[in-house]
Amino acid sequence: MKLENQEKIAVVIPCYRERSLISNVLNEIPDFVSRIYLVDDACPEGTGNYVKTNFKEERIVILRHQYNQGVGAAVLTGYRQALQDEMTIIVKLDGDAQMDPKKIPGFIRPILNKEADYTKGNRFYQLRSLKEMPKIRIIGNMVLTFLSKLSSGYWNLFDPTNGYTAIHSSVLRLLDLDSISTDFFFESDMLCHLGSLRARILDIPIDARYRDEKSSIIIHKIVFPFFYRHLKRLLWRLLQNYFIRDLSAASFSLVFGLLLLGFGFIFGFYQWHVHILRSEFASVGTVMLASLPLIIGMQLLLSFLNYDIS
Questions:
Q1: How far is CA 229 from CA 12, 17, 96, 141, 221, in A?
Q2: What's the CA gap between 290 and 1, in Å, rounded?
Q3: What is the Rg, in whole angstroms, of the alpha carbon atoms belonging to the chain?
Q4: Over the stretch 98-147, which tens digit does the pLDDT of each residue have?
Q5: E strands in 25-100
């Protein structure tokens, strides 16, 4: 791939327990990449020392954490160094060889063509590639994808936890890096923060590759913590986009929809409980007073959801 206007492409690789696979990743990174930031997140296998001893390429820069801080913190360390070195586009790869470095041109081309500010992988685009993915990961990703759509506002994206990404430095500089999660919520939180900037994000179809690596993510243990964090980001997004930065008809649809829905549910439940205890039927007026707010409230919320998606 030939680059115009002297763009500098960087690759950030967070490493923790990936000494056996890191050689496969480094050997496949294209020559047009100017800098490779390998972030040793206090790896007990000494991945950073291994690379320093066995790879003499000048473009490899080894960054170290004194203690393990999480994959997000490692990526952010690489991001900060890339910005300091004035890189143009920063690609993030994992060190476990699940992500094919030969696909890097497909990630940076839309950014160079100004079609996107941020690109990310989507393992679900090609259905044949899902045959290699464990079923529990497929189910977990579907749940997390829906939560991410709600919290980030990017309804057209899928596979939000995919860590194969690329971002333009001009957009990265606008993000508050200190407020982004540093653990396994990192990729999802990046989408939420990019959504606050209304950055253009594009999904890039990739195949799922699994070798001998062992994932440290246990799906059933992260779904509920992810749900809580997505809920916080959803509330933050709604407050920021619909009440602080802008106030539109959708804002009123959301407020009155929630109020009417809440009133209809509480009033209806109360009346149902009272009439059950009295062993009598509720009047038509009572039923309508409970059902109409529910119907109108639901219509208003659906109207808001349609506006948010569009």
A1: 25, 27, 26, 16, 14
A2: 64
A3: 24
A4: 899 999 999 999 999 999 999 999 988 776 666 667 677 777 778 888 99
A5: 35-40, 60-64, 89-92
DSSP 8-state secondary structure symbol assigned to residue 128: G
In angstroms, the CA 310 to CA 302 distance is 12
pTM of the model: 0.87
For 236-258, the three-class secondary structure string (H helix, E strand, C coil) is HHHHHHHHHCCCCHHHHHHHHHH
> Could you report the per-residue pLDDT of 33-45, keeping only the tens digit for each?
999 999 999 999 9
Query: Exposed/middle/buried for 236, CB within 10 Å: 0-12, 13-18, 19+?
Result: middle
> How far is it, in rounded angstroms, from Cα 261 to Cα 264?
5
pLDDT digits (tens, 9 = 90+) for 57-81: 899 999 999 999 999 999 999 999 9
Percent pLDDT > 70 in the chain is 91
Going by their DSSP bridges, the two strands 118-122 and 165-168 should be labelled as antiparallel
